[in-house]
Amino acid sequence: MTVKVGTEEKLVPRKDIKSTQLAPSSMPAMGDQLSKRDIRDLVTYLGNLRRRFE
User: What sign results for the dihedral spanned by CA atoms 27, 28, 33, 34?
Assistant: First the structure.
């Protein structure tokens, strides 16, 4: 099994693994950080930036 540790990938034999579980996402929930209006404004801003460079 390949395990990513930071920017490195390590190969660990399956026989050496006792158990596995999915780690929670380190990405914060945007609903807790930004209001719906802030998210809308951010998406609009990013969309406008994209048009400038096309």
Answer: positive
Contact by Cβ (8 Å): 14, 2: no
What is the rounded CA–CA span in Å between residue 6 and residue 13?
Answer: 19
**Tens-place pLDDT, residues 1-54:** 888 888 899 999 999 989 888 877 777 676 678 888 998 999 999 999 877 776
Domain boundaries, the chain: 30-54
Distance CA 36, CA 42 (A): 10
DSSP H helical segments within 1-35, as ranges? Answer: 30-33
pTM assigned to the model: 0.40
Alpha carbon distance 39, 25 (integer Å): 20
